[in-house]
């Protein structure tokens, strides 16, 4: 085992989720390889952030639930489903430090949670409780589906939508706070009220950890009605304590960074009179029984990904430090790999290490000629098909007078790679990416070449 991989196993923190005794021998590299042996061999998977990863032992637990249903569906429905969902909700309550299990609903993914929250905002406009021109504020780098959902539920109902334009590359939390305050001021400038703020805990692309506690405190000071935190990437990647965060709503996926199969997520709804107005967008015969029960049955489908959530402890507790230990090692490793790549290419990271999670943005050589989002997508495809490297590429438009990096001899970085680190990753995954980019540079490659290839 090389020194870097040894470092990935050495972190030590207490796991507040489980009270189990620690094993005398932690999981080995060969056991990790076995758990993820279903991954395509020869591919550098440094994009855990998009779809996550599920170990074989969790897949086996999921199959047991699936077979339990297929064996005797009626017995499963009447005697096991709701009990299992409640067990998962209780696990989530303890994991995120919620006050009550009734605050927890399980949904397919964060996109579904967004629909639940925005649906009631749309109804409030349509029913006259909110006035036309009242505002909703979101970050400019909000996930695409979130932006579309705000368009579908808020804009169509008459709400005024404001985007906080965050800087990137970003150098400090204060830069984000300043721009967010400007957005709130704009929202109040026409005399309306700000009914909702949607704040990412970790933006997806570009990936940056957002100072959510500070932004929520500002929202409270400015009289924002409801605050919804989209933490799609958070669970398993950074600490989530909903009481400390203080949002009205919080969602996160379990299939991205906590090893669950797709798709499983939670929606936390702080106890308030708003709870009775929340409904799952798929209406079943459970409608009106509260969001948690509505979400627990939306018709015949495979619920195994939601039922298997507590089983994740059996996997994460094989690592020293459990969830927290994995989280710390992933962060430290991805920062180290990001700095290695930036040094190799003469570029920079997109944010300081303390604003990174288990994902880091790394500037790509300017000579690649990334000049549009289409260029970024074509380069990503080229890296997959020619070099077996899977990594998202972000196009960063550079405005007049802006400099893309500190060590670029005044060149402008327009492309950033978002690299992830999960327990199955090894140093050679990132070296493979480094060497692929270096080869492209040596060959005089530019993205324009992909238009004619």
Automatic annotation (TrEMBL):
<dbReference type="InterPro" id="IPR000192">
    <property type="entry name" value="Aminotrans_V_dom"/>
</dbReference>
<keyword id="KW-0663">Pyridoxal phosphate</keyword>
<protein>
    <submittedName>
        <fullName>Aminotransferase</fullName>
    </submittedName>
</protein>
<dbReference type="InterPro" id="IPR015421">
    <property type="entry name" value="PyrdxlP-dep_Trfase_major"/>
</dbReference>
<keyword id="KW-0808">Transferase</keyword>
<feature type="domain" description="Aminotransferase class V">
    <location>
        <begin position="82"/>
        <end position="275"/>
    </location>
</feature>
<dbReference type="GO" id="GO:0008483">
    <property type="term" value="F:transaminase activity"/>
</dbReference>
<dbReference type="Pfam" id="PF00266">
    <property type="entry name" value="Aminotran_5"/>
</dbReference>
<keyword id="KW-0032">Aminotransferase</keyword>
<dbReference type="InterPro" id="IPR015424">
    <property type="entry name" value="PyrdxlP-dep_Trfase"/>
</dbReference>
